[in-house]
Amino acid sequence: MILAYSSNIHPPSLYLAKLGGIMKKVIKQSPGSSYIRLNKSTVMSNKLAQAIKKHAPAQGIFQSAITELAFMRMDTVSSTPSPIVYEPSVYIVAQGSKTASLAGELYTYNALNYLVLSLPLPLQCEVTMASAERPFLALKLSIRPELLSELVIEIERLASPKKQAAKARQTTERGMYVAAMSDTLSSAVIRLINTLDDAAAIKLIAPLVIKEILFHLLKADQADQLKAFVCQDRNDYRICNSVNYIQKNFHQPLEIEQLASLAGMSPSSFHHYFKLVTNASPLQYIKSMRLHAARSKILLNSLSVGDAAFQVGYTSPSQFSREYKRFFGTAPSLDAHPMLS
Hints:
This protein is an alpha+beta fold and about 350 residues long. It folds into 3 domains: about 1-40, no CATH class; about 40-230, Jelly Rolls; about 235-340, Homeodomain-like (Arc Repressor Mutant, subunit A, Orthogonal Bundle), CATH 1.10.10. It contains 15 helices and 13 strands. Helix 3 crosses helix 7, helix 5 (about 185-195) packs antiparallel against helix 7 (about 205-220) and helix 12 crosses helix 13. It is globular and about 55 Å long. The protein starts with a strand and ends in a 5-residue tail after the last helix. This is AraC family transcriptional regulator.
């Protein structure tokens, strides 16, 4: 695609800056004008945006016929950050920009960078770039740990002895990261979306393309952060199992000693590695899970404040209200009865 502009309107450097640095170099110049070509990544982003828009015709979240795949569209920026628990997934943005905060740690994902979550994490998310003319367009592809584990084993088996020796690094990683989008990944994602046009392709081709997408994630520069959570000899894997246990049992009393024992660690080691992975202490994580679940029950299931508090493990309504307001910035009674605010 060729774009032309008059050299007496904007100098090339200014024009490139205005386009956010996405344009490639000036490839041809003449006395009265210059020509610039969109780089391949921008073309792929545009194709991906059009593919997503087809399945997200209005603002909202749209589940596709492929269980692991959902689309998101926002026509305006967020007025306030939204608290949400993200499951293990890859989030790919085709247009616009979004931020996710993990206990104050900020991650930005856009058409140039995708977001990966290796385990369930409580986040504060905010769409920062969107408009009616250029809406925020993204997709979420859930990651099945068993499929990821199979791929990691196969990739390691086929790796050269030199690369196998290099994997000895045992640093514990955060459970989420942002990585640079590639054309090969964009192409695979577009092909996955295109399978939605054919019921047979959804059943026969989509699983293969999902596997290909995971393969590209595992071959990226930051892939070790994803691999670590399915490698049983890694602390990340043990913490991930603990997080999954908390997810299923947070409504019950949970002791750090119990969780540490399940992870095969001492309480002090468990606390240390848990915070490295989640950026929160175990108690902070448990509290966050309970409060997120309670808010969901209040807003989506219309539960009373007392019932929601009890169902997520609180025995004191007053303590629940204090912690809820401190965490979300509003009293649970106002979420339960919006007209009061």
